[in-house]
C-alpha cells in the first residue's frame, strides 16, 4: 500500500510539473501573440500616419487635411502629431465616428466631415472654441450634444440629410455668432426652441422635415433674411411672421397652405417668395412679363403672385360680404 501511495505521489508530481510547463508555454505563446499584435498595430499606425501626412496641404495660409473618396473608417491616434491642423475636409471616406480626441485639435477652424457614415458627435467637440464651421451633412447622426454650445466661435452649422435628427438641445441658443444653419431633410416636427433663440441667425433651412405649423415665437428671429421651409406639412402661417422685418427670402413650396394671409403684405423687405405646389383655394393667373429670363421671371412670379392672390382674396371676401348683407336685408 505504501508503494502504491509513493507511485501515485510521483505521478501527481510529474503531472503538476507538466501542467505548469503547459501553462507557462501557453502564457509565453499569448505574450508573443500580444507582442506581435502590438508590432502590427504600431506598423499600421506608422503607415496610416505617413498616408495622412501626404494628404496635408496649405491653402491661403491654412493647414488642411483633405481626403476624398478614400476608405478611412477610423482615424489613427497618430493623427495627434498633426494637431496644428486648421481644417479637416474628409468626404466620402466611410468614416464611422469622429475620434474622441477631436478636442485636442485646438487650432481647428473648419471641420467638414460630410458624406460619411458618422452616427454620433462626441462631447469633446465642445473643446473646439476656435471652430467656425461644422459641416456634418449626409451622415447618420441622430442627436446633437449640448456641449456643442461651447463652440463659441461657430458661425456655420450644417446637419442636413441625417434623416433622424428631431430636436436640438436648448443650450445651442448660446451660439451667439451662428448665422447659418442647415437642418434640412431630417425629422423635425417644429422649429426647435434653441433655433428661435439664436440671436445672430440669418440663414435657416428646415426644408424636407415634418413641420405642421410655425410657432408664434418665430418673430424672435429678427436677423433672419432667408428661410427655407419647402416640402413640409405647414397648413397656415402665424400672424407674427409679418414682424420679421429683415426677411427677404421665404420658400414655402410643397406644403399644405390653402391661403396666403393678408398680413404678409406688411413684409415690405420680401424679395423672393415661393408658394408653388400648395393646395391654395384661389386660382390666380396672369401673363408672364416680357423681356425677362426664366430665373428672373420665376422670382417675379412668386412675389407678384403673392400680392395678386391677396388682392383677389380681399375682393372675393368683399363680394361674399356684400352677397351676405343683401341676403340678410332681403330676408
From TrEMBL:
Keyword match Repeat: yes
Domain of life: Eukaryota
Pfam families, per database record: LRR_1, LRR_14, LRR_4
Main location: cytoplasm
Keyword Cytoplasm: yes
Keywords: Cytoplasm, Leucine-rich repeat, Muscle protein, Repeat
Gene Ontology CC terms: M band
Disease resistance R13L4/SHOC-2-like LRR domain residues: 77-187
Organism of this sequence: Jaculus jaculus (Lesser Egyptian jerboa)
Name this polypeptide is given: Leucine-rich repeat-containing protein 39
InterPro entries on file: Leu-rich_rpt (IPR001611), Leu-rich_rpt_4 (IPR025875), Leu-rich_rpt_typical-subtyp (IPR003591), LRR_dom_sf (IPR032675), LRR_domain-containing (IPR050216), LRR_R13L4/SHOC2-like (IPR055414)
